[in-house]
Specification:
It is globular and about 55 Å long. Strands 6-5-4-7-8-9 form a six-stranded parallel beta sheet, with helices on both faces. A three-stranded parallel beta sheet has the order 1-2-3, with helices on one face. It is built from eleven helices and nine strands. It is of the alpha/beta class. About 3% of the residues have low confidence. It has two domains: 81 residues; 173 residues, Glycogen Phosphorylase B (Rossmann fold), CATH 3.40.50.2000.
């Protein structure tokens, strides 16, 4: 019998990245019947826990969702964690699987919603992220949906709306930021916005021909599932992306990723490159 202790924070993308790149996603799938898992989450995304709640070994996993770590100095954050009974710093082990790809599994609750699309030519689109400035402008939403349809792919939008899952202890500064909201997909597209659990969304991504995403967790699910990715971001992020200063800089450098900013004069060229890769993969039977 082995008891595993996991401690994850940040956004949904951070949680799944730590799970996969530290080898824990696969390890959880291979638990012995008597093994148990204790998961502590300090994240503002209330849906991150669905990675564990709907896991095939969920009966062996206990999740403690503490909300997001509040703003403060490094020492204040350490004290906040200690007040929850957590170690001052997370200790989940080293990154042992930097280029890992994994198999995702849907939740029984909603897998029936995606089953009619599996095996068809579709592209998953994630047009909203945790801050409004990351969200696709309306013209780009329409353009990407149109590009998919005209090239013979079903555009399927995903995403979740939520109030950040944050509780602030007395004395901590409360950060100011927008509530996470989702765009309204074009009527010509299929919308699973606010309809799918996290694991079922991951499976939809896993079976897609490709993924078009803003800087949301979906870009990470795409690469962990081995999907080709078109990553689009606002002009204000161009300098950070070009210099490799973004949090997930390895994403932009990944061979499966085509990336550019909205205002790139060669935006259409990057779009054509992405869809050319999808057509080439289809021609190879992949």
């Amino acid at each position: 019998m082995v008891h595993h202790y996991l401690d994850y924070g940040g956004g949904l993308g951070d949680v799944v990245t730590m799970m996969v790149r530290q080898g824990m996603y696969e390890k959880l799938l291979n638990l012995d019947p008597d093994d148990t898992v204790e998961v502590h989450l300090t994240t503002g995304n209330p849906f991150a826990r669905e990675l564990f709640d709907y896991h095939p070994k969920a009966s062996q996993i206990t999740v403690f969702d503490h909300g997001n770590m509040p703003n403060g100095t490094r020492e204040e954050k350490r004290e906040w964690r200690k007040g929850l009974g957590l170690s001052p710093n997370r200790k989940n082990g080293r990154v042992t699987h930097p280029n890992a790809q994994v198999e995702f599994y849907p939740a029984d609750l909603d897998k029936h919603l995606i089953e009619p699309y599996l095996g068809k030519r579709y592209v998953v689109l994630s047009a909203s992220a945790s801050r409004n400035w990351k969200t696709f402008p309306g013209w780009l939403v329409e353009k990407m949906a149109r590009e998919c349809s005209e090239r013979g792919f079903i555009p399927i939008f995903v995403g979740r709306s939520y109030e950040p899952n944050i509780e602030y202890p007395e004395g901590f500064e409360v950060p100011v930021g927008p509530v996470r909201g989702e765009i309204t997909p074009p009527v010509t597209a299929t919308s699973f916005v606010d309809k799918l659990t996290v694991p079922t969304t991951a499976v939809l991504v896993q079976r897609a021909c490709g993924v078009i995403s803003c800087h949301s967790a979906i870009k990470l699910f795409a690469l962990f599932a081995g999907r080709k990715l078109l990553l689009l971001y606002p002009d204000q992020m161009k300098e950070k992306v070009d210099s490799g200063q973004t949090v997930h800089k390895w994403v932009e450098r990944h061979p499966l990723c085509v990336h550019t900013n909205y205002d790139d004069s060669d935006l259409q060229g990057k779009v054509d490159l992405f869809f050319g890769r999808l057509d080439a993969a289809a021609g190879d039977g992949r």
